[in-house]
Every structure is written in structure tokens, then in C-alpha cells.
Amino acid sequence: MSTLPAGAEPRRTVGPFQLLALGVNGIVGVGIFFAPAEVAAQAPGMGAVWAFAVTGLALVPVALAFAVLGRRFDADGGPVVFARAAFGERASFLVGWVAYVSAFLSASAVNAGLARALAPSLGLAGPVGERFLATALVTALVALVATGMRVSARTWTALTVLKLVPLVALLGAFFFLPSAGELPAPLPATGGSWLKAGLAVMFAFQGFEIVPVIAGQVRSPERTVPLATVGSLLVAMLLYVGLTWACVAALPGLAQATAPLVQAAGVWGGQGLERFVNAGTSVSALGICLGTLVTTPRYLSTLASGERSLFGLERMTPSGVPMRALFVTWVLVIGFVNMGDLSELFALSAIAVLMQFGVTAAALAVLSLRRERNLKPAHALLAVPTLVLGLTLVAFGASAREAAVASLAVLVGFALMQLSRPRVPAPGPQP
């Protein structure tokens, strides 16, 4: 497949609604189908609802920080290009590499989990069948992504709508039933439980940060990227608060529920709604699988697009696909989904998100104080809550194992930097 000449840009095919759908798809994954029980164990009763509401509001300044910078950088990469502008190539390369490692590990785990859930119904039960199905699933999704951003955007938008339909149906059944207002009295949650509940909620809200990663494919990114970044968080916050409320009202023993949304659907809408919401779990997982395979290669292509080139990974097709980076991602994900138990592959998630939050906040502060990109010093104030939340996430949400995996990823990143070569300027007209 042909690639664009140096300096040329692909056609921008992603519109506002499609970018908003990407952000919502990134946040509303499989986790919300189980998160209310985990949060309720730390913040019982209506405390779980308040945990989702307060944490969502606390993340709004973080989304605004991404939005403020996202509107000023119309290239792919998000935090990678933010770091390049503020701190130079070395920092940008390492941020991009750690984000990429975390993303392809997460993509491997989600694809393997979906294959494990679907395999029995397809007659492929057992490790061999599950791995075969995971390999086929990843290959099919990568083939779809390779066709171009236009097809990918339409597909992730359709999957986002499909995953939201059963969740909205659950909310409708809850709010329009006469007994919906008969809620249990709020139970207290004291001490460290609120912090643990907030951390669980914070992980459930992750995903809006991927919106600027495809900014180079978006029409009118100066308007679309900020709206989709903040809008996806607000949509998810309203949805999560309502869903958790429905679970609290339906399930007195919510903390012990194994599938809280599905069980709450059975209470409010019977077996039909229960089956509908249960099917939504697989659709939601499929949407996440596609979203990760669209965005993950762009971390790799962006870290290779600066002053130093790395194996031509930055090359883009006219349809907006970093084909070499996509191929490398396909090989890595296929390798990991065939390794067996992938429950540990999320080990870099907390630190990778912290790095993206922290680098974005620091870049916003530095560029604001320099008054670059039409930023003013007042914009630097948004960096403060972002840094506080990021440090809280890593201090209380990251483990020693995650730190070890992150350190190993950084060392590999340094080795890759040694393999990169200074970019040769494109030949220009002779004087």
C-alpha cells in the first residue's frame, strides 16, 4: 500500500460525533459492568453513587488540560507531541514508548478476554480454541483498521451506539418504574475507604485521554478535539452515576454482586433486559478491542515522527493509517494473546496513565509560562489538579510490580532510542 510523501498529510475523515464516540468508547468498556460492586465495597449505599459523581467532577480539570493542548496540536500523538513541544525529543520518545507498551499489553488482554468469553458459544472451548479465536479476532480487527480511518470511525461509532443501547435501556427501566425512588438510606463510608473507592472510579473513567491521539485525522481539530475530550467524560459521568444508582437501588448486597449491571437489569426489567445487558458486555469489549487497535499504533508512529526516525514507523497511508506501526502492533498482540493467562497484562496501566496525565499537565504549565501556542500563564492553573490526581493514582493505585514493569519499559525505550537515526531533511529546491 502506498504511503504519503514526506510533509504531506492524510485526508481528515473523522468528524465531531465520531470523535466523541471514540472517547465514550474508550471510557465505557467492560469495567463498568463490574465496577459498581467494587466501589460499593468501599463506599456502601449511596456513597457509591457519590463516589462516581465526585470523582468524575474531579477529572474535569484533567480533561480540560488535554482539551486546551489538544486544540493547539493538530497532529497525532496527544501527550507524545505535547512532551515534544515542551521538553524535547528524549522525553517525547520515552512517553510515547511507555504509552505504547501499556496500550498493546492492554489490547492483548482485552482481546484475549473477549475470545475467552465467546469461545464456548462458538464450540471453541479450551486453551487452543480460545487462542485460535483471539488470533482470528485480532487479525480481523487489524485488517479493518488497515482499510483506513473512514471505515474504522464508522465501525467504532456503530459499536459505541450498540454498547450504549442496553445501558440506556437499563436506566430507562430504573427511572420510569414507580419504585425507582424507593432508595436505601445512604450508608457512611469513612477513613481510607473513600480513597480506595475514588481510585476504582478513576480507573473506570480512564479513556478520554485517547481523543487527542488521533487529532491528525480529525476535521477542525481546534474545535472538535476539546469538545470530544470533555464531552466524552461528561457523558460517561452521567451514565455511570445513573447506572450505579440503579444498582444501589436494586441490590442490597451490591458489594457481593458478581455482575451488578446484569443483576440490576434483571430486577428492573426482567430476564429480557438481563439478557440484553449481558449481551452488551461482549459488544462493549469488541468496541474497546477496535478502539485500542486504532489508537495504539499511533503512539508508536508518533514517537518515530520527530527529529529521529525509527525504521520508518511514522509512515502514513493516504487513508490515515500508520501501516508499519500497525503491523508491528499486530505481531506483538498476536504473540501475547497466544501466551496463555493474560490477567497480568494490565500491570503498566496505572503508571502509563499517570505519565500521560503528568506529562500533559507539565507540558501545559511550561508552554503556558513560555506563552507558546497562544497559551497564557493562567492556563497553567489547570496543571495543578491534574498533577495532584496523577500523583494520587500512582501513589495509591500503582504496585511495586507496575513500577518494575515501567522501569523495564523505560530501559527498552532507551535501547530503541539508540537504534533511531537523525532524520534526513527532504530535498528542497536548489538556490
UniProtKB/TrEMBL annotation:
Keywords carried by this UniProt record: Cell membrane, Membrane, Transmembrane, Transmembrane helix
Top-level taxon in the UniProt lineage: Bacteria
Compartments in which it is found: Cell membrane
Pfam families registered for this protein in UniProt: AA_permease_2
Topology of the protein relative to the lipid bilayer: Multi-pass membrane protein
InterPro entries in the cross-refs: AA/rel_permease1 (IPR002293), APC_superfamily (IPR050367)
A cellular-component GO term for this protein: plasma membrane
Positions of transmembrane segments: 19-37, 49-70, 91-112, 132-149, 156-177, 197-215, 227-251, 321-339, 345-367, 379-397, 403-420
GO molecular function, one term: transmembrane transporter activity
PANTHER family assigned to the protein according to its UniProt record, in alphabetical order: AMINO ACID TRANSPORTER-RELATED, ARGININE_AGMATINE ANTIPORTER
Family the UniProt entry places it in: Belongs to the amino acid-polyamine-organocation (APC) superfamily. Basic amino acid/polyamine antiporter (APA) (TC 2.A.3.2) family.
Function: Major component of the acid-resistance (AR) system allowing enteric pathogens to survive the acidic environment in the stomach. Exchanges extracellular arginine for its intracellular decarboxylation product agmatine (Agm) thereby expelling intracellular protons. Probably undergoes several conformational states in order to translocate the substrate across the membrane; keeps the substrate accessible to only 1 side of the membrane at a time by opening and closing 3 membrane-internal gates.
Protein name: Arginine/agmatine antiporter
Organism of derivation: Corallococcus terminator
Source lineage: Bacteria, Pseudomonadati, Myxococcota, Myxococcia, Myxococcales
